[in-house]
Structure formats: C-alpha cells, structure tokens
Fold this protein.
Amino acid sequence: MIKLDHLNCLVTGGAGFIGSHLVDQLLARGCMVRVLDNLSNGKLANLSSHFADPNFEFNQGSITDPCDVDQAMQDIQVVFHLACLGVRHSIAHPYENQRVNAEGTLLLLAAASRAKVSRFIHCSSSEVYGSAQYVPMAETHPTQPCTVYGASKLAGEAYARAYYLTYGLPTVIIRPFNTYGPRSHHEGDAGEMIPKSIVRALNGKEVLVFGGGLQTRDFTFVEDTAAGLVAAAECEAMTGLTLNIGCNFEISVKELAEKLVAMVGNHAATVRFTSARPGDVSRLHADPSAFMALCGWRPTTTFEAGLEKTIACFRAHPLGLAGLLQSEAGRNW
C-alpha cells in the first residue's frame, strides 16, 4: 500500500467540482497540493478556504500548454488528472473538447513520465461505455461512446494505458459514474441535471426533463468519489488497471426530477418534459465490485442524504436564489 500522507500531489482541474473536493481530502492528509486549472469551469471560490495553507499552491494554466504543464509537474510525486471539458460542451465544440480531453492528457502523461512520478491517476468517465447493453456494467462492458466527450475520454484512457505498457508509468484509470453534490455546476455547458434542477425548483420554476425521462443514471456523492480517487492512488494492486467507481444502483431521470421537486418543497415548482438532448445515453448502472474488492472503498453517503446536502448548499449560496437562476439557461448545448 502506498501512503499519500505528506507527498507532493498535482491535481489538474482542482478548482472544479470533483477536483476541489479531492484537494480538501489531500490537504487533510497533510499532502502538499498544487492545482493546475485554467478556470474555464472551475472557480477559485471552491478553493478559497486553502489560500492561507502553506501546503497549497494554485497555478492558473492549461493542460494543453507545455510550459504550464512542465511548471506544474516540478517536484510532483502523484498526479490526479481531472481537468476536462464536458459532455454538453462536446456537442457544439467537438474539436476543442477532444484537444483538451485527449491531447491534453497525452501532454500531461509525457510530462509525468519525464518527471518520474510515482503514481498517475487518470479520471475518465462512464460516458466511455455509451448506453448500457446490460447491467450492471463491469469494466468489461463494450465501450461505444455516444459523444465526442466520451470518445475523447476513451482516447485519454488509451494514452494512459500506453504510457503504462510502453514507458512503465504507474497509471490507474478510474471511470466514475455520475457524481453529484455541493459545488456541482448548474451553469453553462458544464451544468448537470441535479444542480440545474435544484436551482430551478428553489426558484419555483419548471424542472426540465429532456426526452421521456426513462433514462437512468448511477449517482455517487462527490465526497465519496473523491475518497475513491485517493484510495486508487494508495492501492498498489490497481497499477495498470481500469476500474469503475459507482454505487450499483440506478434511478430514472423522471423519478429523480420528481424527487427533487418534493425535497425542495417549493409548491410552485413542477416537472416539464421537453425534447431529448443529443448524445444522451439511455442507461448507466455501475458494477464497482472490482474496485471495492481491491481497496475496500464503499460509498458512505446515501443518495437521499447527499441530495439534502446539495439542496442545502444551493439554498445558502452567496449569489442568492435569483442570482443562481440568472445563469441557468435550461438548454445548455
């Protein structure tokens, strides 16, 4: 077992949703944490509690810039690679999406190999699978991504495997299924259903369901996902492997929308069905048993408890409910 305590860690995309929670956990372990983020989706506010911490360093820069990457990689022992552009972004900007998610990953792997880092955790996505052909979906499930995002994440995986097999870089590829929780994106093309729906429901607006609502997803609370990434870095038996993180359950988008409206408790909020999103996968349901068997990780937050925490976070947001709604466009592709 590898102990992360007091090691020098680089988190790309560390100002983002999952990345900032990972930074929280690494700093709590006594790690020196350097973040590389261009703030295209991430927010400095997600990291503001760490600005005075001598073990924390923020580098504003891009994973597609060799100079930024080389500077960020100096004296680093463990890399957590989370920086990416998302699913909806890839609909309108496919080339930029693949450049960041695939080419940026390759650039980072090359720099990590030169720096002889002891661990490289590549955060991929369940989107590499496309829609489930059977459930639950183990790592052997066919990979047939529906979007350029999914394809670019799959390419990044292939590069990570190649660097392990050809150059001996100790990589681990993690495929998180859908993650939710505080700091999740409700705005722009990074916005996802749970935060978008919470913002709309809190404001008494219609919660939008794209398509028939029968699509299913497997959700993990963000602190559990971050803990899984830490566990992957510490588990030597995972070197060279590709593994799922998920909760082995599925809920339909329709049921989720109705649940959120009920939990928010604003009687003016309703559910409205609208046209389907392009590239939307119809079913995701994780089999995380291989990951659990290797490191003992288990999700500790129930879905309902996680939703309550997420709703409370948005209810208390410094922008206020009306301010949050201003940046929630509904259709975000």
